[in-house]
Amino acid sequence: MQLIIGKKAILDAITNKSLVKATISNKDKVFFNKVKAYLPSVQINNDKSFYEKLASGQNHQFAIGYVEGEIELTLPNFLNRVKDQKTSLVLIVDSIEDPMNFGAIIRSAESFGIDALIYKKDGQCQITPAVIKTSQGAISNLNMIKVTNLNDTINKLKEAGYWIYASCLDQQAHKLDEIKFSGKVVIIVGNENKGVSPLVLKNSDFKVYIEMFGKSQSLNVSAATAVLLSTIQSKLKK
C-alpha cells in the first residue's frame, strides 16, 4: 500500500475507489462524513503529533490514508497493452530531484492523457507522499513505470516502434512547433539543473526545444513538460 497525506489526496482516492485505510480527525464534520460514508472503518485521531510523524513536514491537515498497490506498471506489460495502438505518447523523466516538480509533472502528464510516465529507480526523486499530494490525485490515473536503466529502456521502446525525442537547448535541437509528430512518441525531460544526461541525449533520435519570446531563456522543468506534452499530444490527435 502507498501512503497518501492530506484531505485532497484522500478525497481523490475515494473518487478513484483506491482508498483502503485512513486515519483522520473528526473535527471537520463534512470531510469526516464523506470519508466515513466511503470507508466505514476509518480511524479517528485528533493527536497532531501522530500525523506529524508520518507527514515529514507536509501539511497533513489531520488526514492520512493508504491506497491500493504501488501505482506502478512494468515496461513489458505496458508495451503489450499498447502494441496495437497507432499513436502513443510516453514521457521519460531523467533524474528529476524535486518532489514538487515531479508531482507537478505527473499532474500534467495525466491531464494531457499520456500513456505512461517512466522514471529511474535510483538517482532521482521517487514516489513519496509529497509527490502524490502535489499530483493532486493524478498519479492514481497514470501508468507509472520505474526502471533500472534509462538507456536500456529507450532501446526497448525503439524496438516497439517509438521515436525518441529529448528536450534540450543545444545547437542540434529543432523547434518544437516545427516538428510533425506522428505514430509512437517518447519525450524526455531532464534534471532541473543539468538537463537530460549526455548518454540519454546520444541515444535519442531527435532533440527539441521550446522557442522563448521573453528575456528568460528557459522554463522550469514542470512548466516546460506541460508545454511539450500539450503540443505533442495535439499533433498526435489530429
Q: What do these coordinates show?
A:
The protein contains nine helices and eleven strands. The chain is elongated. The protein has two domains: 66 residues, 60s Ribosomal Protein L30, Chain: A, CATH 3.30.1330; 162 residues, 3-Layer(aba) Sandwich (Alpha/beta knot), CATH 3.40.1280. With 238 residues, the chain is of the alpha/beta class. α1 packs parallel to α2 and α5 packs parallel to α9. The relative contact order is 0.16. The protein is 36% helix and 21% strand.
Brief overview:
With 238 residues, the protein is α/β, with parallel strands linked by helices. It has helices at 7-15, 29-38, 48-55, 75-82, 99-111, 129-134, 150-159, 198-203, 221-236, and strands at 2-5, 19-24, 43-44, 63-67, 88-93, 116-120, 144-147, 162-167, 174-175, 184-189, 206-209.
